[in-house]
Design goal:
Elements: H1 6-29, H2 40-64, H3 73-105, H4 113-139, H5 147-153
Length: 157
C-alpha cells in the first residue's frame, strides 16, 4: 500500500468545498435553513484522530525494533488502511466545512458568528483528523530495504 499523495488530498478538499458550498446553496434555495454542523462533530473528529494515532503507535515501535511483543501483520494492515481512510475522509470533511463557512460568509444576510464558527470548527477538527491519519500512515510505513544488498544482486554486463 502506498502512502496518500498530496494531489489526492487536494482533490478531496476541493471536492468537499464544492459539495459544501453547492449543497448549502441548494438547501437554502429550497427555502430551508442552511446546514450548520453541530459542535459534537469537531470533537468527534478530534477523538478519532487521537484513536488512530494511538492504534498506530505500537506498530511504529515494532517497525523501529523497540517492541517487546510480536506484531500481528493483519493488525498492522488494518491500522494502515484505517489511517488512509482517516486522511481521505478528513480531507473531504475539511473541504465541506470550508465550503459551508464560505457559503455563510458570502451571503447577503450576515450569518450569526456562532454559526460561522461551527463551520470552521468542523474544518479544524477535520484538519486534525487529516493530520492524525497522515501521521498514523507514516507510523505504519516500513523502512526502505538495504540498498547495498540490491546492488549485489544485479548483474552487469
Amino acid at each position: 500500500m502506498k502512502r496518500t499523495h498530496f494531489s489526492t488530498l487536494l482533490a478531496f478538499v476541493l471536492g468537499g468545498v464544492v459539495i459544501g458550498y453547492l449543497g448549502d446553496l441548494a438547501i437554502v434555495n429550497t427555502g430551508a435553513k442552511a446546514l450548520v454542523p453541530p459542535l459534537s462533530l469537531p470533537i468527534t473528529l478530534l477523538g478519532v484522530a487521537v484513536i488512530v494515532v494511538l492504534l498506530a503507535w505500537p506498530i511504529r515501535r515494532a517497525v523501529k525494533g523497540r517492541a517487546t511483543k510480536h506484531l500481528d501483520p493483519f493488525r498492522a494492515m488494518r491500522v494502515a488502511v484505517l489511517a488512509k481512510a482517516c486522511s481521505l475522509s478528513g480531507a473531504l470533511v475539511l473541504g465541506v466545512g470550508l465550503g459551508i463557512g464560505l457559503f455563510l460568509l458570502t451571503r447577503s444576510v450576515v450569518a450569526p458568528a456562532g454559526t460561522v464558527w461551527l463551520a470552521f470548527a468542523t474544518a479544524i477538527g477535520a484538519a486534525l483528523l487529516l493530520a492524525g491519519g497522515l501521521l498514523a500512515e507514516w507510523f505504519c510505513t516500513l523502512p526502505p530495504d538495504d540498498p547495498d544488498s540490491e546492488k549485489e544482486e544485479h548483474a552487469h554486463a
